Amino acid sequence: MSDDVFMATPSEMPAAAPLSLLGMTGYQEGAVVSRTLLKRAGGTLTLFAFDAGQGLSEHTAPFDALVHILEGEAEITIAGITLKVPAGESVLMPANQPHAIHAPTRFKMLLTMIRSDRTTA
């Protein structure tokens, strides 16, 4: 195995090193901040920081996405059902289902997009 397998691009998180995800992105007033931590053919890891009152409007994605709330609390709506998700909890947003995210207060989340050939009914 070559050494470059463990190398990250400058914008990605380093391999084989402990990190504090909470410290990898900060809040900005009136904004949603995102940072891609890892991007591969099989999926991506993206860190988000939402200021209070901000959100992502309803949309669909062709891939399953796992949201893990790191700090604060999020309101996640999937196919018309709204969930309150506190820090430490995760939610799977199924592929091809409409979903939206709202920040009643500031929160940070890690989004894991999982690309696959699997289709949903």
Question: Secondary-structure element sequence?
Answer: EEEEEEEEE
Quick one: how many beta strands? 9
Q: What is the CATH domain class of the domain at 31-114?
A: Mainly Beta
The CATH architecture category of the domain at 31-114 equals Sandwich
CATH-level-4 superfamily name of the domain at 31-114? Jelly Rolls
Helix coverage percent:
under 10%
Largest sheet: 5 strands, antiparallel
Radius of gyration: 15 Å
Strand order of the largest sheet: 1-2-9-4-7
Structural class: mainly beta
Mean pLDDT: 89
Distance between the termini: 40 Å
What share of the residues does DSSP label as strand, in percent? over 45%
Say what the CATH topology of the domain at 31-114 is: Jelly Rolls
Q: Which stretches are poorly predicted, pLDDT < 50 over at least 5 residues?
A: 1-8
Summed up, the helix count is 0
What does the overall shape look like?
globular
Produce the secondary structure layout:
Blueprint lengths: L31 E9 L2 E8 L4 E5 L4 E8 L1 E6 L2 E6 L3 E4 L5 E4 L4 E8 L7
Antiparallel strand pairs: 1-2, 2-9, 3-8, 4-7, 4-9, 5-6, 5-8
Question: Would you kindly provide a written description of the structure presented here, covering whatever features stand out?
Answer:
It is a single chain. This protein is mainly beta and 121 residues long. 0% of the residues lie in helices and 48% in strands. It has no helices and nine strands. The chain has strands at 32-40, 43-50, 55-59, 64-71, 73-78, 81-86, 90-93, 99-102, 107-114. Strands 1-2-9-4-7 form a five-stranded antiparallel β-sheet, with no helix packed on it. Strands 3-8-5-6 form a four-stranded antiparallel β-sheet, with no helix packed on it. A hairpin with a 2-residue loop joins strand 1 and strand 2. It is globular and about 40 Å long. The termini are far apart. Residues 1-8 have low confidence and may be disordered.
